[in-house]
Automatic annotation (TrEMBL), chain A:
SUPFAM superfamilies: WD40 repeat-like (SSF50978)
Entry protein name: Serine/threonine-protein phosphatase 2A 55 kDa regulatory subunit B
Family: Belongs to the phosphatase 2A regulatory subunit B family.
Recorded name of the encoding gene: PPP2R2B
Any one Gene Ontology cellular component term annotated for this protein: protein phosphatase type 2A complex
Key words of the record: Repeat, WD repeat
Transmembrane segments: none
UniProt keyword annotation of Repeat present: yes
Tagged with keyword Repeat: yes
InterPro entries from the UniProt entry: PP2A_PR55, PP2A_PR55_CS, WD40/YVTN_repeat-like_dom_sf, WD40_repeat_dom_sf, WD40_rpt
Lineage: Eukaryota, Metazoa, Chordata, Craniata, Vertebrata
UniProtKB/TrEMBL annotation, chain B:
Organism annotation: Equus caballus (Horse)
A biological-process GO annotation: negative regulation of cell growth
Signal sequence residues: 1-19
Domain SERTA: 73-120
Cellular compartments per GO CC: nucleus
Descriptive protein name: SERTA domain containing 3
Amino acid sequence: MVLQPSERHYRDWSDRRWKGQESRVLTDRLQSPADPRRSVNSVMLADIISTVEFNHTGELLATGDKGGRVVIFQREQESKNQVHRRGEYNVYSTFQSHEPEFDYLKSLEIEEKINKIRWLPQQNAAYFLLSTNDKTVKLWKVSERDKRPEGYNLKDEEGRLRDPATITTLRVPVLRPMDLMVEATPRRVFANAHTYHINSISVNSDYETYMSADDLRINLWNFEITNQSFNIVDIKPANMEELTEVITAAEFHPHHCNTFVYSSSKGTIRLCDMRASALCDRHTKFFEEPEDPSNRSFFSEIISSISDVKFSHSGRYIMTRDYLTVKVWDLNMENRPIETYQVHDYLRSKLCSLYENDCIFDKFECVWNGSDSVIMTGSYNNFFRMFDRNTKRDVTLEASRENSKPRAILKPRKVCVGGKRRKDEISVDSLDFSKKILHTAWHPSENIIAVAATNNLYIFQDKVN
Amino acid sequence: MAVHSCSLSVFLCSGPCACYTCDLLDDVLRIFTIPILQMGKLRPGEGIMVGGLKRKHSDLEEDEKWDWGPAGLRSYQQALLRISLDKVQRGLGPRAPSLRRHVLIHNTLQQLQAALCLAPAPALPPEPLFLGEEDFSLSATIGSILRELETSMDETEPPPDPVAPVGPQHEVLSQSDPVFLEALSSRYLGDSGLDEFFLDIDTSAVEKEPALAPPAPPHNLFCAPGSWEWNELDHIMEIILGS
């Protein structure tokens, strides 16, 4: 099948004219010449963005990277003077979430790479988020401080203790304004519960619990309790030689706190109800599409492995991403998806090469827009794709510096499969497979998207006419 | 199992392997070493670079250069097998391996093994290195599959369906002889326990040898000890079992 993004004037998108706005801040954020890990003119491995997530209002955007850092961007308040100028995202806070560890007992390195970040809904002035690496989940509190107390009796302004004998008067400390300081503090550390690599975390709609999923098990936590977790799914076979399937992603239902789904490396999705039993090894629903025998190959199983699963905001649908497609499933129909979108079907004839260079194991994520009408996912060559579920139109866009001058309009791209290549098209053989967009995020209510391309973060906003 | 501890010491620590008790690597290695261990003892001193015969991927996918006849198809499958084995070999390192990746590669290996057996397996001549046919259990061993492939190449008839140049992998599984697969599964996928089998394995017989230069392609059809398949698998054994 030849991939053909719509060549006609894609009315919905083109009229809105996506404005390219590269977040220069992120590439500058790690300016520290003294850091021995930095080198000139090369992509630092530690800088590779590994997760991107908007918070529930869209005011904050968090990124995690391979070096264990979390960078939070905050949207500028729209000023009254410039009504038409959309708020830009600027760095709000940066902190080191996870450090590399060495498990001496097992002689294994534990990577500090942040696999996932999930925000908690805001309940007071502070922001809370969960961040996880392969083994440990942490709850971070991000809060602002713009006042500080002055006039202590027992210590001076620098904090040094005063000799009590020199104190002759008592005074009441007062709060004085100071420069805004954003501090991140780890409030909880949820460790030692996962033997295998954590691939997902998901906050429950009750806001009291969350789950963490690794390759073979899913654990349920209470935010207040760090030394205990409940195991709710365990697919580890008694005999490991019989292992043929692993858990690849998991998510709670957005409204029903008893319901969650998890996907597998065999292309199946299981929906579980925690009311049914304490251990949800028996699914309530089982979603699997019958295999197309005409497409069968040695790589069928690998490309059917689901890399991401996301509930729609409505809670009625789930979206899954496998290597070549994005599928939308209705929770009420288990035997096949209701929609299938080809992301880059031109790669189907290249699977052997992609197997050899390991690209076939890349895990792409997928996201819904706020109204569940559009879905987005990444591809290679810094391309990302959007599919409008209503009009059935799709578009391929590129996240690159050349295309992202301020106020530039993103031009649709096209991949040419065979035959004559038109101008502005790119042939399949020219695609750069080292430039992959695995992580994207969509603002919860507006048309603002964040696209992570290796070590660069691109934020694109709808142009306001 | 003692075998796992020895193998792990090669990759992870220079000291004694008593320190190593990892669930994860134990489990992962178990998935891959069991089929190889079932082959029985291998003679030391026979080893080649597994990757020495690896084809470039461009060779595998350029239709005009590749021969998609039955022999070409088999070569393609063998090349995929070598790539997969290479991935297994390289998958172990200082960091805990990705279980998902290993499981997917393992499942692909099993498919390749099944597909490579296109003809009914001939009765195996008594092999001093084998512990007997009835001792095979679980999935088919890589070495025995390769051996049968060599012995069956003379007897295999060309597949009835023409192999299309594009997407040869689509044809492979549909051509597998169902009778043979049934025979294969009944022979190899028995429920015999593993424990008594492993007691027979004397790992002291397997010594670590420096890698030899890649050999010429095989001339004889039987996968006898000393042939390139045995050398290849022996090398895998060396790496996994260590010294």
